[in-house]
Automatic annotation (TrEMBL):
GO terms for cellular component: Cajal body. It catalyses: a 5'-end (N(7)-methyl 5'-triphosphoguanosine)-ribonucleoside in snoRNA + S-adenosyl-L-methionine = a 5'-end (N(2),N(7)-dimethyl 5'-triphosphoguanosine)-ribonucleoside in snoRNA + S-adenosyl-L-homocysteine + H(+); a 5'-end (N(2),N(7)-dimethyl 5'-triphosphoguanosine)-ribonucleoside in snoRNA + S-adenosyl-L-methionine = a 5'-end (N(2),N(2),N(7)-trimethyl 5'-triphosphoguanosine)-ribonucleoside in snoRNA + S-adenosyl-L-homocysteine + H(+); a 5'-end (N(2),N(7)-dimethyl 5'-triphosphoguanosine)-ribonucleoside in snRNA + S-adenosyl-L-methionine = a 5'-end (N(2),N(2),N(7)-trimethyl 5'-triphosphoguanosine)-ribonucleoside in snRNA + S-adenosyl-L-homocysteine + H(+); a 5'-end (N(7)-methyl 5'-triphosphoguanosine)-ribonucleoside in snRNA + S-adenosyl-L-methionine = a 5'-end (N(2),N(7)-dimethyl 5'-triphosphoguanosine)-ribonucleoside in snRNA + S-adenosyl-L-homocysteine + H(+). GO terms for molecular function: RNA cap trimethylguanosine synthase activity. Belongs to the methyltransferase superfamily. Trimethylguanosine synthase family. Pfam families: Methyltransf_15. This is Trimethylguanosine synthase.
Length: 186
């Protein structure tokens, strides 16, 4: 009864987003439609671990409510989770507490590109950069082919050019309707 009508369809899937939803998971309005479903986050974490089993540091560049970071923390020694919005960051920290991995995640509030520059200055080697960048909200569903140059606030070219200076291992979570030619061009 306290869920806004426009979010009700997401609320109905709450246990697919976080299986421990009833244990105190926190989501702000945007995270209801932005968080990676838990089963997908588990699969991505396991895949990245299989590809890079010796990786020590994984960065979750747009951590949101922390769904991916939580799963990375199950497998990788060090997870650095970056989020620019303080309310969303508070949700991520709470969710990491719910899943018992808050001590394995270093949460950094700030712009992902500025934080990555700071990590380089600190001589921190980033083995993998994972990012589920903002797509501009659920309106992407209305496009048969999603133009990755229209992502807000950062387009694919900007994200990739910045990340590729930090690590050769980049994993981007993008809409399934993404323009494959734009990805191939990078």
């Amino acid at each position: 009864h306290d869920i806004p009508e426009k979010l009700y369809r997401y609320w109905k899937t709450r246990y697919s987003l976080f299986s421990l939803y009833d244990s105190g998971v926190a989501l702000n309005e945007e995270q209801w439609f932005s968080v990676t479903p838990e089963a997908v986050a588990v699969s991505v974490a396991e895949y990245l671990y299989e590809c890079q089993p010796d990786a020590q540091v994984i960065v979750d560049g747009f951590c949101g409510a922390g769904g991916n970071s939580i799963q990375f923390a199950r497998l990788f020694p060090r997870v650095i989770s970056i989020e620019i919005d303080p309310v969303t960051m508070a949700c991520a920290k709470q969710n990491a507490r719910v899943y018992g991995v808050e001590d394995k995640i270093e949460f950094i509030l700030g712009d992902v590109f500025e934080v990555l520059k700071s990590l380089i200055k600190q001589d921190i080697k980033v083995d993998i950069i994972y990012a589920s960048p903002p797509w501009g909200g659920p309106s992407y569903l209305n496009q048969s082919v999603f133009d990755l140059s229209q992502m807000v606030p950062y387009d694919l070219q900007h994200i990739y050019s910045q990340f590729s200076c930090i690590s050769k291992n980049i994993c981007l979570f993008l809409p399934k309707s993404s323009d494959l030619q734009q990805i191939a061009d990078l």
